[in-house]
Specification:
Elements: H1 20-25, H2 37-61, H3 67-92, H4 94-105, H5 117-149, H6 176-227, H7 235-289, H8 295-304, H9 306-334, H10 343-355, E1 363-364, E2 368-369, H11 372-392
Length: about 400
Protein backbone atom coordinates (compact mmCIF):
# COMPACT_ATOMS: atom_id res chain seq x y z
CA UNK A 1 0.00 0.00 0.00
CA UNK A 2 1.41 3.36 -1.02
CA UNK A 3 2.22 5.78 1.72
CA UNK A 4 0.47 9.12 1.89
CA UNK A 5 2.66 11.91 0.59
CA UNK A 6 3.69 14.49 3.10
CA UNK A 7 2.27 17.99 2.81
CA UNK A 8 4.61 20.33 1.00
CA UNK A 9 4.80 23.74 2.64
CA UNK A 10 5.70 26.86 0.69
CA UNK A 11 8.79 28.77 1.81
CA UNK A 12 8.93 31.51 -0.82
CA UNK A 13 6.91 34.57 0.37
CA UNK A 14 6.32 35.60 -3.25
CA UNK A 15 4.07 32.55 -3.59
CA UNK A 16 2.13 33.12 -0.38
CA UNK A 17 -1.63 33.46 -0.72
CA UNK A 18 -3.39 36.73 0.08
CA UNK A 19 -6.56 35.95 -1.93
CA UNK A 20 -5.87 38.92 -4.18
CA UNK A 21 -7.15 36.91 -7.15
CA UNK A 22 -10.47 36.40 -5.36
CA UNK A 23 -10.99 40.14 -4.93
CA UNK A 24 -9.98 40.78 -8.54
CA UNK A 25 -12.39 38.14 -9.86
CA UNK A 26 -15.30 39.79 -8.03
CA UNK A 27 -14.28 43.33 -8.99
CA UNK A 28 -13.47 44.39 -5.42
CA UNK A 29 -9.88 45.46 -6.08
CA UNK A 30 -8.95 48.52 -8.07
CA UNK A 31 -5.56 48.85 -9.76
CA UNK A 32 -4.12 50.81 -12.65
CA UNK A 33 -3.02 47.74 -14.60
CA UNK A 34 -5.45 44.83 -14.29
CA UNK A 35 -8.75 46.32 -13.11
CA UNK A 36 -11.88 45.26 -15.00
CA UNK A 37 -14.56 47.94 -14.43
CA UNK A 38 -17.33 45.70 -15.77
CA UNK A 39 -16.78 43.21 -12.94
CA UNK A 40 -17.02 45.93 -10.32
CA UNK A 41 -20.12 47.47 -11.87
CA UNK A 42 -21.84 44.10 -12.24
CA UNK A 43 -21.06 42.87 -8.71
CA UNK A 44 -21.96 46.06 -6.87
CA UNK A 45 -25.02 46.80 -9.03
CA UNK A 46 -26.39 43.29 -8.59
CA UNK A 47 -26.13 43.27 -4.81
CA UNK A 48 -27.57 46.81 -4.64
CA UNK A 49 -30.54 45.73 -6.75
CA UNK A 50 -31.04 42.79 -4.40
CA UNK A 51 -31.30 45.16 -1.45
CA UNK A 52 -33.94 47.30 -3.20
CA UNK A 53 -35.67 44.17 -4.50
CA UNK A 54 -36.64 43.24 -0.93
CA UNK A 55 -37.06 46.68 0.62
CA UNK A 56 -39.46 47.82 -2.14
CA UNK A 57 -41.73 44.87 -1.38
CA UNK A 58 -42.22 46.23 2.13
CA UNK A 59 -42.57 49.82 0.91
CA UNK A 60 -45.29 48.96 -1.63
CA UNK A 61 -47.31 46.26 0.14
CA UNK A 62 -46.67 46.58 3.87
CA UNK A 63 -50.35 47.31 4.63
CA UNK A 64 -51.41 43.84 3.46
CA UNK A 65 -48.52 41.91 5.00
CA UNK A 66 -48.19 40.14 8.32
CA UNK A 67 -45.69 41.49 10.81
CA UNK A 68 -43.50 38.37 10.77
CA UNK A 69 -43.36 38.46 6.97
CA UNK A 70 -42.21 42.08 7.08
CA UNK A 71 -39.50 41.17 9.58
CA UNK A 72 -38.32 38.29 7.38
CA UNK A 73 -38.07 40.50 4.31
CA UNK A 74 -36.31 43.26 6.23
CA UNK A 75 -33.81 40.68 7.46
CA UNK A 76 -33.03 39.71 3.86
CA UNK A 77 -32.63 43.40 3.08
CA UNK A 78 -30.20 43.62 5.99
CA UNK A 79 -28.13 40.70 4.61
CA UNK A 80 -27.79 42.39 1.21
CA UNK A 81 -27.10 45.77 2.78
CA UNK A 82 -24.31 44.44 5.01
CA UNK A 83 -22.65 42.41 2.26
CA UNK A 84 -22.95 45.27 -0.22
CA UNK A 85 -21.63 47.92 2.16
CA UNK A 86 -18.66 45.76 3.17
CA UNK A 87 -17.84 45.04 -0.47
CA UNK A 88 -18.11 48.71 -1.44
CA UNK A 89 -15.86 49.85 1.43
CA UNK A 90 -13.29 47.16 0.61
CA UNK A 91 -13.29 48.32 -3.01
CA UNK A 92 -12.71 51.95 -1.96
CA UNK A 93 -9.87 50.82 0.32
CA UNK A 94 -8.02 49.01 -2.49
CA UNK A 95 -4.88 51.06 -1.88
CA UNK A 96 -4.57 49.64 1.63
CA UNK A 97 -4.94 46.09 0.39
CA UNK A 98 -2.10 46.64 -2.09
CA UNK A 99 0.10 47.72 0.84
CA UNK A 100 -0.94 44.66 2.87
CA UNK A 101 -0.35 42.41 -0.13
CA UNK A 102 3.12 43.80 -0.82
CA UNK A 103 4.22 43.41 2.82
CA UNK A 104 3.15 39.75 2.83
CA UNK A 105 4.85 39.07 -0.50
CA UNK A 106 8.05 40.68 0.79
CA UNK A 107 8.05 38.33 3.77
CA UNK A 108 7.41 41.23 6.19
CA UNK A 109 11.07 41.50 7.24
CA UNK A 110 14.20 39.72 6.07
CA UNK A 111 16.65 39.09 8.90
CA UNK A 112 20.30 39.33 7.78
CA UNK A 113 20.94 36.06 9.61
CA UNK A 114 17.83 34.47 8.08
CA UNK A 115 14.99 32.65 9.80
CA UNK A 116 15.37 29.49 11.81
CA UNK A 117 13.78 26.24 10.64
CA UNK A 118 11.06 26.67 13.27
CA UNK A 119 10.21 30.17 12.06
CA UNK A 120 10.10 29.11 8.41
CA UNK A 121 7.76 26.26 9.32
CA UNK A 122 5.43 28.64 11.20
CA UNK A 123 5.24 30.95 8.19
CA UNK A 124 4.70 28.07 5.76
CA UNK A 125 1.99 26.45 7.90
CA UNK A 126 0.14 29.77 8.06
CA UNK A 127 0.13 29.98 4.26
CA UNK A 128 -1.03 26.36 3.99
CA UNK A 129 -3.83 27.11 6.46
CA UNK A 130 -4.89 30.13 4.40
CA UNK A 131 -5.21 27.93 1.30
CA UNK A 132 -7.36 25.37 3.14
CA UNK A 133 -9.60 27.97 4.75
CA UNK A 134 -10.10 29.68 1.39
CA UNK A 135 -11.06 26.38 -0.21
CA UNK A 136 -13.56 25.21 2.40
CA UNK A 137 -14.52 28.45 4.15
CA UNK A 138 -15.80 30.17 1.03
CA UNK A 139 -18.00 27.17 0.29
CA UNK A 140 -19.47 27.32 3.79
CA UNK A 141 -20.23 31.04 3.57
CA UNK A 142 -21.78 30.67 0.11
CA UNK A 143 -23.98 27.74 1.19
CA UNK A 144 -25.12 29.45 4.42
CA UNK A 145 -25.95 32.71 2.64
CA UNK A 146 -27.72 30.98 -0.25
CA UNK A 147 -29.71 28.94 2.25
CA UNK A 148 -30.80 32.17 3.92
CA UNK A 149 -31.71 34.03 0.72
CA UNK A 150 -33.14 31.36 -1.61
CA UNK A 151 -36.43 30.52 0.05
CA UNK A 152 -39.03 31.40 -2.54
CA UNK A 153 -42.42 29.66 -3.00
CA UNK A 154 -42.97 27.31 -5.95
CA UNK A 155 -46.25 27.53 -7.95
CA UNK A 156 -48.56 24.56 -7.54
CA UNK A 157 -49.69 24.38 -11.17
CA UNK A 158 -50.29 26.51 -14.26
CA UNK A 159 -53.77 27.53 -13.15
CA UNK A 160 -53.04 28.71 -9.59
CA UNK A 161 -49.83 30.71 -9.09
CA UNK A 162 -48.32 31.76 -5.78
CA UNK A 163 -47.54 35.46 -5.99
CA UNK A 164 -46.41 36.04 -2.38
CA UNK A 165 -42.70 36.33 -3.10
CA UNK A 166 -40.31 37.81 -0.57
CA UNK A 167 -39.12 40.49 -2.95
CA UNK A 168 -40.76 42.99 -5.28
CA UNK A 169 -41.01 41.95 -8.94
CA UNK A 170 -42.02 44.52 -11.60
CA UNK A 171 -44.29 42.02 -13.38
CA UNK A 172 -46.91 39.46 -12.42
CA UNK A 173 -45.51 35.94 -12.22
CA UNK A 174 -48.26 34.06 -14.06
CA UNK A 175 -46.30 31.73 -16.34
CA UNK A 176 -43.33 29.40 -16.18
CA UNK A 177 -41.02 31.64 -18.27
CA UNK A 178 -41.65 34.58 -15.93
CA UNK A 179 -41.22 32.30 -12.94
CA UNK A 180 -37.85 31.02 -14.16
CA UNK A 181 -36.76 34.57 -15.02
CA UNK A 182 -37.57 35.77 -11.50
CA UNK A 183 -35.85 32.77 -9.91
CA UNK A 184 -32.77 33.23 -12.07
CA UNK A 185 -32.52 36.80 -10.80
CA UNK A 186 -32.95 35.59 -7.21
CA UNK A 187 -30.12 33.12 -7.74
CA UNK A 188 -27.78 35.78 -9.16
CA UNK A 189 -28.60 38.26 -6.40
CA UNK A 190 -28.14 35.65 -3.67
CA UNK A 191 -24.85 34.50 -5.22
CA UNK A 192 -23.61 38.09 -5.26
CA UNK A 193 -24.40 38.49 -1.55
CA UNK A 194 -22.81 35.12 -0.73
CA UNK A 195 -19.65 35.63 -2.79
CA UNK A 196 -19.05 39.27 -1.85
CA UNK A 197 -19.73 38.81 1.86
CA UNK A 198 -17.84 35.51 1.98
CA UNK A 199 -14.85 36.88 0.06
CA UNK A 200 -14.46 39.87 2.36
CA UNK A 201 -14.42 37.51 5.35
CA UNK A 202 -12.04 35.01 3.70
CA UNK A 203 -9.55 37.77 2.85
CA UNK A 204 -9.78 38.94 6.47
CA UNK A 205 -8.90 35.44 7.69
CA UNK A 206 -5.98 35.18 5.24
CA UNK A 207 -4.46 38.48 6.36
CA UNK A 208 -5.03 37.61 10.03
CA UNK A 209 -3.28 34.23 9.64
CA UNK A 210 -0.18 35.86 8.14
CA UNK A 211 -0.17 38.45 10.93
CA UNK A 212 -0.45 35.78 13.63
CA UNK A 213 2.46 33.88 12.09
CA UNK A 214 4.65 37.00 12.06
CA UNK A 215 3.87 37.79 15.70
CA UNK A 216 4.89 34.26 16.64
CA UNK A 217 8.07 34.53 14.55
CA UNK A 218 8.95 37.83 16.21
CA UNK A 219 8.44 36.32 19.67
CA UNK A 220 10.94 33.60 18.78
CA UNK A 221 13.39 36.19 17.43
CA UNK A 222 13.16 38.21 20.66
CA UNK A 223 13.61 35.07 22.74
CA UNK A 224 16.69 34.03 20.76
CA UNK A 225 18.20 37.54 20.82
CA UNK A 226 17.67 38.08 24.55
CA UNK A 227 18.74 34.54 25.38
CA UNK A 228 22.26 35.19 24.09
CA UNK A 229 23.83 36.97 27.08
CA UNK A 230 27.22 38.49 26.17
CA UNK A 231 30.18 38.26 28.50
CA UNK A 232 30.71 41.48 30.45
CA UNK A 233 33.39 43.57 28.76
CA UNK A 234 33.21 41.70 25.44
CA UNK A 235 32.49 44.60 23.09
CA UNK A 236 32.05 42.39 20.03
CA UNK A 237 29.46 40.19 21.75
CA UNK A 238 27.63 43.24 23.16
CA UNK A 239 27.49 44.83 19.72
CA UNK A 240 26.15 41.59 18.22
CA UNK A 241 23.47 41.35 20.94
CA UNK A 242 22.36 44.92 20.27
CA UNK A 243 22.36 44.27 16.51
CA UNK A 244 20.00 41.33 16.95
CA UNK A 245 17.67 43.43 19.08
CA UNK A 246 17.71 46.13 16.42
CA UNK A 247 16.62 43.60 13.80
CA UNK A 248 13.73 42.57 16.06
CA UNK A 249 12.70 46.20 16.52
CA UNK A 250 12.71 46.74 12.76
CA UNK A 251 10.57 43.63 12.29
CA UNK A 252 8.20 44.87 15.00
CA UNK A 253 7.84 48.23 13.24
CA UNK A 254 6.83 46.45 10.02
CA UNK A 255 4.23 44.41 11.93
CA UNK A 256 2.81 47.55 13.58
CA UNK A 257 2.52 49.24 10.19
CA UNK A 258 0.87 46.13 8.77
CA UNK A 259 -1.60 45.98 11.67
CA UNK A 260 -2.45 49.66 11.24
CA UNK A 261 -3.26 49.15 7.54
CA UNK A 262 -5.22 46.00 8.39
CA UNK A 263 -7.21 47.89 11.03
CA UNK A 264 -8.10 50.75 8.69
CA UNK A 265 -8.93 48.37 5.83
CA UNK A 266 -11.48 46.41 7.88
CA UNK A 267 -12.72 49.05 10.31
CA UNK A 268 -16.10 49.64 8.62
CA UNK A 269 -16.76 45.99 7.61
CA UNK A 270 -16.17 44.89 11.21
CA UNK A 271 -18.60 47.50 12.51
CA UNK A 272 -21.22 46.53 9.92
CA UNK A 273 -21.02 42.84 10.79
CA UNK A 274 -21.11 43.33 14.57
CA UNK A 275 -24.01 45.79 14.33
CA UNK A 276 -25.83 43.60 11.79
CA UNK A 277 -25.47 40.52 13.97
CA UNK A 278 -26.86 42.41 16.96
CA UNK A 279 -29.89 43.48 14.91
CA UNK A 280 -30.36 39.93 13.61
CA UNK A 281 -30.22 38.38 17.08
CA UNK A 282 -32.68 40.94 18.44
CA UNK A 283 -34.95 40.07 15.51
CA UNK A 284 -34.90 36.46 16.64
CA UNK A 285 -35.89 37.57 20.15
CA UNK A 286 -38.78 39.57 18.66
CA UNK A 287 -40.02 36.60 16.64
CA UNK A 288 -39.71 34.09 19.49
CA UNK A 289 -41.72 36.29 21.88
CA UNK A 290 -44.45 37.04 19.33
CA UNK A 291 -47.76 35.45 20.50
CA UNK A 292 -48.58 34.24 16.98
CA UNK A 293 -45.17 32.67 16.44
CA UNK A 294 -44.92 28.87 16.41
CA UNK A 295 -41.92 26.64 16.99
CA UNK A 296 -41.59 26.06 13.25
CA UNK A 297 -41.55 29.79 12.53
CA UNK A 298 -38.95 30.42 15.24
CA UNK A 299 -36.77 27.58 13.94
CA UNK A 300 -37.01 28.93 10.39
CA UNK A 301 -35.89 32.38 11.55
CA UNK A 302 -33.00 30.85 13.46
CA UNK A 303 -31.78 29.20 10.26
CA UNK A 304 -31.88 32.58 8.52
CA UNK A 305 -29.33 33.94 11.00
CA UNK A 306 -26.56 31.59 9.77
CA UNK A 307 -24.68 34.17 7.61
CA UNK A 308 -24.51 36.93 10.24
CA UNK A 309 -23.61 34.56 13.08
CA UNK A 310 -20.91 32.82 11.02
CA UNK A 311 -19.31 36.12 9.96
CA UNK A 312 -19.44 37.51 13.50
CA UNK A 313 -17.81 34.42 15.02
CA UNK A 314 -14.99 34.45 12.45
CA UNK A 315 -14.21 38.15 12.86
CA UNK A 316 -14.33 38.09 16.66
CA UNK A 317 -12.37 34.83 16.99
CA UNK A 318 -9.49 36.06 14.84
CA UNK A 319 -9.56 39.46 16.50
CA UNK A 320 -9.12 37.70 19.84
CA UNK A 321 -6.28 35.55 18.47
CA UNK A 322 -4.37 38.64 17.32
CA UNK A 323 -4.79 40.30 20.71
CA UNK A 324 -3.64 37.16 22.53
CA UNK A 325 -0.58 36.76 20.30
CA UNK A 326 0.32 40.41 20.90
CA UNK A 327 0.17 39.72 24.64
CA UNK A 328 2.48 36.72 24.18
CA UNK A 329 4.98 38.99 22.43
CA UNK A 330 4.95 41.46 25.30
CA UNK A 331 5.30 38.72 27.93
CA UNK A 332 8.27 37.25 26.04
CA UNK A 333 10.16 40.53 26.38
CA UNK A 334 8.87 41.36 29.86
CA UNK A 335 9.90 38.02 31.36
CA UNK A 336 13.36 37.99 29.75
CA UNK A 337 16.50 38.26 31.96
CA UNK A 338 17.09 41.88 31.00
CA UNK A 339 19.33 42.55 34.01
CA UNK A 340 22.17 40.52 32.42
CA UNK A 341 22.11 42.51 29.19
CA UNK A 342 24.30 45.53 28.33
CA UNK A 343 22.76 48.99 28.52
CA UNK A 344 21.97 49.42 24.77
CA UNK A 345 20.04 46.12 24.78
CA UNK A 346 18.14 47.17 27.93
CA UNK A 347 17.11 50.41 26.21
CA UNK A 348 15.93 48.48 23.16
CA UNK A 349 13.89 46.13 25.36
CA UNK A 350 12.35 49.12 27.12
CA UNK A 351 11.40 50.52 23.72
CA UNK A 352 9.61 47.27 22.87
CA UNK A 353 7.72 47.25 26.18
CA UNK A 354 6.55 50.81 25.54
CA UNK A 355 5.39 49.95 22.02
CA UNK A 356 3.57 46.81 23.17
CA UNK A 357 1.81 48.54 26.06
CA UNK A 358 -1.23 49.12 23.86
CA UNK A 359 -2.90 45.78 22.96
CA UNK A 360 -3.20 44.77 19.31
CA UNK A 361 -6.97 45.00 19.31
CA UNK A 362 -8.96 45.22 16.09
CA UNK A 363 -11.62 47.89 16.43
CA UNK A 364 -14.97 48.19 14.67
CA UNK A 365 -14.82 51.83 13.53
CA UNK A 366 -13.30 52.73 16.90
CA UNK A 367 -16.59 51.96 18.67
CA UNK A 368 -16.30 48.29 19.60
CA UNK A 369 -13.47 45.82 20.00
CA UNK A 370 -13.46 42.76 17.79
CA UNK A 371 -12.99 39.99 20.35
CA UNK A 372 -14.70 37.09 22.11
CA UNK A 373 -15.98 39.64 24.63
CA UNK A 374 -17.97 41.26 21.82
CA UNK A 375 -19.81 37.98 21.19
CA UNK A 376 -20.75 37.92 24.86
CA UNK A 377 -21.95 41.53 24.69
CA UNK A 378 -24.11 40.76 21.65
CA UNK A 379 -25.59 37.77 23.48
CA UNK A 380 -26.22 39.89 26.59
CA UNK A 381 -27.91 42.60 24.52
CA UNK A 382 -30.14 40.01 22.86
CA UNK A 383 -31.07 38.45 26.20
CA UNK A 384 -31.90 41.85 27.70
CA UNK A 385 -34.06 42.70 24.69
CA UNK A 386 -35.73 39.28 24.94
CA UNK A 387 -36.65 39.82 28.60
CA UNK A 388 -37.95 43.31 27.86
CA UNK A 389 -40.20 41.93 25.11
CA UNK A 390 -41.42 39.15 27.38
CA UNK A 391 -42.46 41.68 30.02
CA UNK A 392 -43.96 44.07 27.46
CA UNK A 393 -46.04 41.29 25.92
CA UNK A 394 -47.26 40.07 29.29
CA UNK A 395 -45.26 36.84 29.41
CA UNK A 396 -42.40 37.54 31.82
CA UNK A 397 -39.75 34.89 32.34
CA UNK A 398 -40.12 33.02 35.58
CA UNK A 399 -37.69 33.91 38.31
CA UNK A 400 -36.26 30.97 40.15
Amino acid sequence: MAKKSKEVFETDPQRFSTNKELLQALGLLWSKTDWNPLRSIFSLSLITSGMFHYSLRVAFTYTSMELLTIIKILHLTNVYFLAGLCAYVVFLQSRRFHIIHSIIKDGFYNYPEGLTQEQMMIRSKANHKVSKITKYGLRFFVISTLGSCLKEPVPYDFEEWTKEYNGWIPFVVDSWPKYFASQFYHLLAALSAALLGGSVCIVFIAVAEHLLAQLEILSISFRNAIGCIPTRGDKVAEKLAYQRMKYCLQHHNVILRFFDEFQKYYSIPLFCMLAGTTVAMCTIAFVVTDPSSTFGVSAAFLSLMAPEVAFCICYCTYGQKITDMGDVLRETVYNAPWYYQPRPVKMAMLMVLIKTRKPLTLSAAGLKDCSIKSIGEITQTTYTYFNALQIFRGNPTSNK
